[in-house]
Amino acid sequence: MNQAVSVKASQGKAVQSHSLSGEQLRLEGLSKSFGHQAPAVVRELSLELPPGEILALLGPSGCGKTTTLRLIAGFEKPDQGRITLNGQDITEARPQDRNIGIVFQDYALIPHMTVMQNVCFGMRQLSKKERPARAAYWLDLMQLSELADRYPHELSGGQQQRVALARTLAAEPHLVLLDEPFSNLDTGLREATRNEMRALFKRTGTSVILVTHDQAEALSFADRVGVMNKGSLCQLDTPQTIYQHPVNAFVAEFLGHTNLISGEAAGREAQTSLGRVRLDRHAEGLIQASLRPEHVRLISDQSGDGQIISREFRGHDYFYQVRCNDHIYKALAPFDCCLEPGSRVRLEAIQPAVVLTEGSTG
Ligand code: ATP
Asked: Which residue, judged by its Cα, is nearest atom 18 of ligand 1?
């Protein structure tokens, strides 16, 4: 698809005329519970989506991601809060009046319609006569032209996914919502499809919200990531900031492996069970901090405090677990640092640890 997209994009007008940009979504204090006494599954959730941004909502199963998406789409009504799209209050609007496109996990293609008919089906904004030409445009963009006469069951998972997206985009929505759309694809196809989609969204300036529980997917696909836990948004920021400067232990642990260490801080350093560790900011007193495994160096040392308890070969590196002063630490070492389980090591923090809590708040 990339080639087709870049040809159209370089022609400028073709893509511009179908641009989905210029919209902005705002959620203000959205709350939702199912039932009178039931706890809220979305709690006072507020965020803004600038035009053309790709936002990933990331969180564990049951944290309220899909419900948030359904509130935005209008399939659920919030108990409290307001949704505006493009400056218009759409909180009470019917789903079909919101002009929001959704791609579900199972693609929801119509089985007895061909690819072409599926794509035409979504284009209510156009007369029946105009639809085939517009559908052909999107099928070309998605490199699906040769499959136009096939039925969904004659397509691979990746092809079905592209048809679902073509159908959604052909309706020219203000905003596209994606609910775990890559989860049915195998690893290789998943990465390729994800990259193609991101490139397409960026070229067309489409605003997108993706729901996923896959942290690697969120980090690589989105411009910003919102991490949710128990219905609340814990942190909303760029993937780099979320990974490098998590605001709490939940975010730190959800975004891959980490070592949660505690100690006594004095300025930019702390005394911990790992020894003296530099900190990413000034802190005093009792702290809890996060130190990623890739920031822990293992040094083979017969008189070291640490003992390797497990080693996992991962191709380009080794993942170790090391017992040290009654704690278990995780460390990533390059492929040429092969240490035997049981051997003694010294642990060294090679980057500052990220302070999560300080003083009595810890
Ligand atoms: P997953 O990643 O597993 O899809 P999620 O983060 O998308 O999870 P939601 O589907 O939003 O989570 O569900 C949040 C909570 O709300 C869950 O406990 C779920 O059981 C509950 N829930 C969702 N829809 C309903 C409903 N229609 N009636 C009652 N409870 C519901």
From this structure: 62
Residue at token pair 């007895």 = 112
Using a 6 Å CB cutoff, which residues line ligand 1? Answer: 34, 41, 59, 61-67, 213
Ligand 1 geometric centre to CA of 250 (Å): 20
Angle (CA) 100 103 106, round 5°: 150
pLDDT of residue 147: 95
Atom 31 in ligand 1: residue holding the nearest Cα: 34
Q: How far apart are CA 324 and CA 346, in angstroms?
A: 9
- Say what the pLDDT of residue 172 is: 81
Determine the 3-state secondary structure of 6 from DSSP. Answer: helix
DSSP bridge pairs for 327? 324
Name residues of the chain where pLDDT drops below 50: 1-23, 361-362
Tens digits of residue pLDDT in 54-90:
999 999 999 999 999 999 999 999 999 999 999 999 9
Give the pTM: 0.83
Residue nearest to atom 9 of ligand 1 (CA): 64
User: 61 CA distance to ligand 1 centroid (A)?
Assistant: 8
Q: What is the pLDDT of residues 107-130, one digit of tens each?
A: 788 999 999 999 998 787 788 888
Nearest-atom index, ligand 1, CA of 211: 7
What does the block give as tokens for 36? Answer: 């009178």
Sign of the alpha-carbon torsion through 100, 106, 112, 114: positive
* Domains of the chain in sequence order: 5-99+172-249 (3.40.50.300), 261-355 (2.40.50.140)
How far, in Å, from the CA of 282 to the mean position of ligand 1? 40
The kind and range of the H/E element at 204 are helix 187-204
